[in-house]
Specification:
The complex is a heterodimer. By secondary structure, chain A is mainly beta. Chain A has one domain. Helix content of chain A is 6%, strand content 35%. Chain A is built from 1 helix and 8 strands, in the order αββββββββ. Chain A has one helix at 19-26; strands at residues 31-35, 41-42, 57-61, 65-74, 88-95, 100-103, 118-125, 131-137. In chain A, strand 5 and strand 6 (100-103) form a beta hairpin. Chain B has a domain at 8-122 and 221-236: 3-Layer(aba) Sandwich (Peroxisomal Thiolase, Chain A, domain 1). Chain B has helices spanning 26-41, 66-74, 91-105, 133-137, 143-146, 151-167, 171-185, 200-205, 233-236, 258-261, 266-277, 294-304, 312-317, 334-337, 344-354; strands at residues 8-15, 50-55, 81-84, 110-117, 120-121, 130-131, 208-211, 213-214, 224-232, 244-251, 286-288, 369-375, 380-388. Chain B has a 9-stranded mixed beta sheet, with helices on both faces. In chain B, strand 7 and strand 8 (213-214) form a beta hairpin. The longest helix of chain B is centred in the middle third of the chain and has 17 residues, at 151-167. Classes of the chains: A mainly beta, B alpha+beta. Chains A and B meet through strand 4, strand 5 and strand 6 of A and helix 5, helix 6 and strand 7 of B. Strand 4 of chain A pairs antiparallel with strand 7 (208-211) of chain B.
């Protein structure tokens, strides 16, 4: 499942640290970082495990299921590519496996969006190189 | 080691013109603020032997050596203490602590602490113009930007939304803070919004910026500078102005995820400050609290223990923190309604009140004042307890 967006929204840089994250997303797979020393899952990507300080790390698939942990409706234009969508929601999703990610919930109205709402991952192809994990409402 | 209060006072305050003031860069505002603070105290540049600088966002690459830049700009020689310091909005309190410790240890006798910034650009000929601060927070190329996540407003909005969900905090509660502070600002000649009265209806009618934040939940943007002169309590008594005594100080930097804790470092910082001062919350006559957002005030009141965690909304709803209320908070209008000088805004208003220079907004009942600073997303916290000379 993917949604293509015509407007030129900003593309994230594929840093060496995030290369596996974007490679997985191109295959429509959601991954988070895992500490190879203590097993702690984390996102966003970090070089050092905040729990055990190990720098040994890898990427591991997660279910893509979670719930809305918090959100806001952005009414202010910061980037022209988002101007037509104002107000749009940016959402922090709490994944079943623990980490949280800032993302969007696609196809969800102002009245529908609420904390605790179950969501699941979907993918948005922004460019040949960049596919973004996104979320959509899920059946409970 | 037992806590011991350094024997120091704030002997001078310098506040430049605030807001849409042009013709100076951030270094220029810093120099003007220090000069005004020295003049206020009846001192000269040659009396300074310490200089601590909190560079705002527009200092850019000059941030790293900000204190040297100000020293050179002022032509001051032979300082025995300087530093550029930055823990966001908690820096003003932290600079005063640093100055107090240095003076107590004999490293310096007379320390200027200054914040300045110049994020507002002059209006262009076509009438446009505006703030550089939003771009200073944006990070193009980062993953969050791809999702439309921009600016620090958004990060506080996430925490506020959680607080509303968990504790039932409402838009009316946030609005009550904006209204109470504006009522104080009406009596502050320096306040950028002194001429605009504000009702709760006006608050609700103000445009959304990042929902649940209306425009009037967010601090102003200001050009300008604020400086204070810290010296020994003994010396301060011989200077021009009534000294403002430091009774207690502390810091608290909680770490972790504010979306989870919904708390600032105010609890940790204030335990140290109150223990040092030998005071309790009941002794506090008024508060000057860091207010990047209305929500920051609400959460800081909770974390200091003025009410139970989660009860900040009902606590502020009845006007208790406004003019004539039992716990006056941000008596000059705060950063929501007066001027945005990071942690120097609450520090400056505490000094004016304790010296009896509050004019139309002067509190009748003075006593120990709790002054907070808050940086990042509830990431850093400084707490000062200030009072008149006993």
């Amino acid at each position: 499942m993917s949604e293509r967006v015509a407007v030129a929204k900003p593309l994230p840089r594929i840093t060496p640290e995030l290369e596996p994250f974007f490679a997985a997303a191109r295959n429509h797979e959601l991954v988070v970082q895992r500490c190879r020393s203590c097993g702690q899952l984390r996102f966003p990507a970090r070089e050092v495990c905040p729990k055990c300080w190990s720098t040994e790390r890898e990427w591991t698939p997660v279910s893509g299921r979670g719930e809305v942990f918090s959100f806001y409706w952005m009414h202010q234009k910061y980037h022209p590519a988002f101007a037509d969508e104002l107000p749009y929601a940016v959402v922090v999703v709490q994944l079943e496996e623990g980490p949280r990610m800032a993302t969007n919930v696609l196809g969800c109205s102002h009245d529908e969006l609420r904390i605790g709402m179950p969501v699941e991952v979907t993918f948005e192809e922004r460019s040949p190189e960049i596919t973004l994990p996104q979320f959509r409402p899920a059946a409970r | 080691m037992p806590l011991r209060t350094p024997d120091v006072s704030i002997a001078g305050l310098g506040v430049t013109e605030q807001g849409k003031v042009f013709g100076k860069n951030a270094v220029g505002f810093a120099v003007e603020a220090v000069a005004r603070a020295l003049e206020d105290a009846g001192l000269e540049g040659k009396d300074l032997d310490g200089l601590l600088v909190n560079p705002g966002l527009t200092w850019g690459p000059a941030s790293a050596m900000a204190s040297f830049a100000v020293q050179q700009a002022m032509g001051v020689r032979d300082l025995r203490l300087t530093a550029a310091m930055n823990l966001g909005g908690a820096t003003a309190g932290a600079m005063i602590m640093q100055a107090a410790l240095a003076i107590e240890a004999g490293l310096a006798t007379t320390v200027a602490c200054v914040f300045s910034d110049a994020p507002l650009a002059p209006p262009k000929r076509d009438g446009s113009g505006g703030s550089a601060s939003s771009s200073a927070y944006s990070q193009a190329g980062d993953l969050p930007a791809a999702y439309g996540q921009y600016g620090v407003n958004a990060l506080y909005a996430l925490v506020t939304q959680r607080h509303m969900h968990r504790f039932g905090t409402t838009q009316d509660h946030l609005g009550a803070i904006a209204v109470a502070q504006r009522a104080f600002a009406r009596g502050n000649p320096l306040a950028q919004l002194r001429d605009t009265p504000l009702s709760l209806e006006d608050y609700h009618a103000s445009r959304w910026v990042v929902e649940p934040f209306h425009l009037l939940d967010c601090c102003l943007v200001s050009n300008g500078g604020v400086a204070v002169i810290v010296t020994s309590a003994e010396r301060a008594r011989d200077l021009r102005r009534p000294p403002v005594r430091l009774l207690g100080m502390g810091q608290g930097h909680p770490g972790g995820d504010p979306l989870e804790t919904l708390s600032s470092g105010a609890g940790l910082a204030s335990r140290t400050a109150f223990a040092m001062a030998g005071l309790t919350l009941e002794d506090i006559a008024f508060c000057e609290l860091y207010d990047c957002y209305t929500f920051t005030v609400l959460v800081t009141l909770e974390d200091y223990g003025f009410c139970e965690k989660g009860e900040g909304g009902p606590f502020v709803a009845d006007g208790r923190t406004g003019p004539g209320g039992s716990l006056p908070v941000n008596t000059g209008g705060g950063q929501l309604s007066s001027y945005y000088m990071w942690g120097m805004t609450p520090v400056s208003e505490a000094i004016l009140q304790l010296r009896g220079e509050g004019g139309a907004r002067q509190l009748e009942r003075l006593g120990p004042c709790l002054v907070s600073g808050n940086g990042g997303i509830l990431s850093t916290h400084s707490c000062l307890i200030l009072d008149q000379e006993p």
